[in-house]
Specification:
single chain, 493 residues, alpha+beta, Creatine Amidinohydrolase, Chain A, domain 1, Creatine Amidinohydrolase, globular, hydrolase, protease, metal-binding, manganese ion binding
């Protein structure tokens, strides 16, 4: 990785204006160049072509983001609303983690660049929106080739004029925002946790309670997806299905290496067709399938064991799939594996059947848990009756987790929503959730017969609530045991 000289350009959130960014160039400690000569600095200022993009069209979701901002404006009349994208985070020394903007910011703008801030200023009976961004790198002060985030190091960014065309929002220089916010008067709310500089500028103007109300509203706004969002979720699922096929094709190579081969194979599909994986891939073979969030993925892949693959592609607009299949590594379930798998499949069938408009959100969980409890009683692993098991939650020793969650721009979407509108709420058309029952018999669980130990099974699909029921977005991946075996044989050729 190349080394750069960096001028002391302040953090975007801390600068009060363009003049403050004109500071002497700093030498990197242990850099190979002692400095920049006046002649080189002058040479780098000129001889560059005009690269302004003049034929840009609005992003595909521009109409949807405008409608979302209008809903936000109506909820908080007369108040200044500040929604930051966030800043880069250091991974080590002078390298950063890949940036992913705050969901709230991306949901309202469609923009995904670091340091961006959306501000809704009260005006009349509504608000006037402005998107604050870093402009093109400065060529006069050498920022574009000397700064670690200059365009010759990390790539070109859009000019403010280009941004206005893309996002349909007036754009301004974010380096001027913190100073303006310090001088602002009137009620203000900010989405916290993303930009310390912006929060510092508002420290005497906001309260935690009022800011939490803003965060909760933006979380609940995502409970019902619009048509654009549903389309993006289907794209994510379709790519995920192809990623699962990729994995089945290379299971023999995974056996020769480790679970990492499975993780890497799926990651390739996610990066080629999307932005990234939506969460850390769980490639859990053998007894690792009993660890719910096994993301180390460093264990062996053995013929005769099961592979629990929980993975999802994230689209370029941040919508993610979340799908799980439990696959026999050699292509055939053993008798005990099929017995456990079938129980989970029956539970998932019951859960999916309970997803419909007007149903309680909890209904699909309760339906799936009842089936699992029935099987555990039937197998003699827990004393019945089933009602007693469910009342005391005894099945949870082997089922462990809830049966699903909302899905969208976050894999666990809408997490800040109020309990009464989420877990205790009612399903509506446009909601998208996962249905993912599981049974997990730990390798050291002496309360179950030895043949059960080390077997973990989860089946997960992404379910859209429709006007008359539901649609399984991930139905292209087989679920029934015999269909899974036939599909694996077909994919392997």
């Amino acid at each position: 990785m190349a080394e750069e000289l960096t001028p002391a350009v302040p953090d975007a959130a801390d600068a009060a204006g363009p003049d403050e960014s004109e500071e002497p160039i700093k030498q990197r400690k242990n850099g190979l160049y002692p400095g920049v000569s006046d002649e080189l600095a002058e040479n780098m200022k000129s001889g560059w072509a005009d690269t302004e993009l003049r034929d840009l069209q609005p992003i595909p979701q521009a109409a949807e983001t405008a409608a979302r901002r209008a809903a936000l404006s109506a909820r908080f009349p007369g108040e200044r609303l500040v929604i930051p994208a966030g800043n880069l985070k250091t991974r080590s020394n002078d390298t950063e983690y890949a940036f992913r903007s705050s969901v709230e910011y991306a949901y309202l703008t469609g923009n995904q660049t670091e340091d961006g801030v959306l501000v809704l200023e009260p005006k009349g009976e509504g608000h006037e929106a402005t998107i604050y961004l870093l402009p093109r790198s400065n060529r006069e002060n050498g920022e574009f080739w000397l700064d670690g985030q200059g365009e010759l190091w990390v790539g070109r960014r859009h000019s403010l004029t280009e941004a206005e065309k893309l996002y349909g929002i007036p754009a301004s220089d974010v380096r001027e925002l913190a100073g303006a916010l310090r001088e602002a008067t009137g009620p203000v709310r900010v989405v916290r946790g993303y930009d310390a500089g912006i929060e510092a500028a508002l420290t005497d103007k906001v309260t935690a309670e009022r800011d939490e109300e803003l965060r909760v509203f933006l979380s609940e706004a995502r409970l019902v997806k619009d048509e654009f969002e549903i389309g993006e979720l289907q794209k994510a699922v379709d790519s995920t299905v192809r990623g699962f096929e990729d994995v089945v094709k290379v299971l023999d190579q995974a056996e020769a290496t480790s679970e990492r081969y499975i993780e890497g194979t799926f990651f390739l599909r996610a990066r080629v067709e999307g932005n990234d994986v939506g969460y850390g891939t769980i490639a859990a073979a053998g007894p690792h399938a009993c660890t719910l969030h096994w993301v180390r993925n460093d264990g062996p892949v053995r013929s005769g064991d099961l592979l629990l693959l929980d993975a999802g592609v994230e689209t370029h607009t941040y919508y993610t799939a979340d799908v799980t299949r439990t696959l026999p590594i050699n292509g055939r379930f053993s008798e005990i594996q099929r017995k456990i798998y079938d129980a989970v499949y029956e539970a998932q069938e019951a859960g999916i059947a309970a997803v419909r408009p007007g149903a309680k959100y909890r209904d699909f969980h309760d339906a799936a848990q009842r089936v699992l409890a029935e099987r555990l009683v039937e197998w003699g692993l827990v004393e019945g009756p089933v009602e007693r098991v469910l009342e005391l939650g005894l099945q949870r020793r082997w089922t462990l987790h809830g049966t699903g969650h909302m899905l969208g721009m976050d894999v666990h979407d809408c997490a800040a929503a109020r309990t009464e509108t989420y877990v205790d709420g009612v399903l509506e058309p446009g909601m998208c959730l996962t249905v993912e029952p599981g049974l997990y018999f730990q390798a050291d669980d002496l309360t179950v017969p030895e043949e059960y130990r080390g077997i973990g099974v989860r089946i997960e699909d992404d379910i859209l609530v429709t006007e008359d029921g539901n649609r399984n977005l991930s139905a292209a991946l087989p679920r029934r045991a015999d269909e899974v075996e036939a599909w694996m044989a077909s994919v392997k050729g």
